[in-house]
Fold this protein.
Amino acid sequence: MNLRGASADALATLSERLPSSDAEKEAATLGEELFGVAAVLREQPGLRRVLTDNSVAADAKAGLAEKVFGSAVAEPTMRVVTDASAARWTASSDIIDALEELATTCTVRSGGKDAGRVSDELFAVRRLVHDSAELREAVADPSRSVADKNSLLRGLLESQLMSATMRLVEQAVAGHDGPMVGALALYERRAAAVLEQVVATVHTARPLDDEVRTRLTEALTKQYDAQVHVDEVVEPDLVGGMRIEIGDDVIDGTVQSRLDDARRRLVG
């Protein structure tokens, strides 16, 4: 989700001030605690409204945040929460989205030198859920608790995923960012952004060979002036060519697309 106005400025400032540490455990703790604070603010709208009320003095809001969270979180987390309370927000709920985005950043950083794997693993889980109707129904079942859904996924995935990825999968199950597949896509984009990358999803009729993948990555990197992380989705029904989705842009060079275009021209 995209924050706007004062909220976007607040998130940018908080991101710049976010503690950076080479210690993976400290980054994981900061991420976990920020997710926890965001959850409390989601459940306590009264508290959230006070902490985002621009008419309340920053010192007063910081004091309230310290009273509520000071004994539950570490000092680095408390600094982030205090800064967030002092910021100006366009909407009260924006502070939750910002804290969760910061939490995602910290969780990805907790992967250390292997942080780049998080995007790949999130994509793999997203495709697994997308392709399995049974699993998709299980994680969407309103009669099952979040804890039960997480237990199911841990049993299936925990041994195959980094702990950072598993934590983000569990966050996606909570449903705060929409259906699980969409939430995983959001976290994947955020994970890539931590490494200053953008995600390109390439739909192709057959798997890309190494040469084509390299040339495609280089071309997209040049076009978007950013390092591109390529996700590949094989769809035999496309017949040939490829469709590339990167942000809001869609580059459709599939045979099916050309056939549909020719059909429209004939009908028109």
User: Anything to note?
Assistant: The chain has three domains: 5-110, 114-194, 197-267.
